Amino acid sequence: MSLTQIKGVLFDLDGTLADTAPDLVQALNLSLQDVGIAPQPLEAMRYAASHGSFALVDAAIPNAADDLRIQVQQGLLAHYQRINGDHCELFTGIMALLDWLELTHVPFGVITNKPARFTRPLLRKLNLHLRMPVIISGDSTKHPKPHTAPMLLGAQQLGCAPSQILYLGDAERDLLAAKAAGMLGGVALWGYLGENDKPLQWPAHAYFVSPEQLHQTLIERLAC
Fold this sequence. Notes:
- There is one protein chain.
- By secondary structure, this protein is an alpha/beta fold.
- Helix content is 43%, strand content 12%.
- The strands form 2 sheets. A 6-stranded parallel sheet has the order 5-4-1-6-7-8, sandwiched between helices.
- α1 crosses α4 (66-83), α3 crosses α4 and α5 (94-103) runs parallel beside α9 (211-222).
- It starts with 7 loop residues before the first strand and ends with a helix.
- Keywords: Carbohydrate metabolism, Hydrolase, Magnesium, Metal-binding.
């Protein structure tokens, strides 16, 4: 498979399309404060932001008892519902890339494991919801990534064969899902990769250090 055959582009949300960590970590810290635990610095927690609320809780309070984990996780979700999007921004270069995709009539969208109650309000705040024919959340299908269900639904809604879609993500499950669905997998190295992540071992077709590099690569490859 080659990048020259791309007819559509799909993105993971947290850590790929948008820098959601500031809101997620603030919600975590508000929940920690509720139970009398000291807050965590953003940079120390950023790597966990792609992996869901329990990953953030476990990064902040490893080996905590289950009842405390659940209490902090539920508090995190409640606070996040209120502050979702307050400090979130698209990664530098993403908006220019999306504008170019739109100009060249390459449809794009999001497949995320974030629940729809957070995904759609966030994309509205980012003024992207009307520009995307595909917004698949973690509860849009019976199974989230790395299952193929959200990927194949995304391909159907995008109107492209999976083999014509570039899917970008910053977590191993993103690339596993892309491979299983027959999509081209691209690793967003600008995302929330932790020290234990080994992206070169993920089943990817391409690696991008920045949205700007991705943009330039697509310009070059799609002109072929």
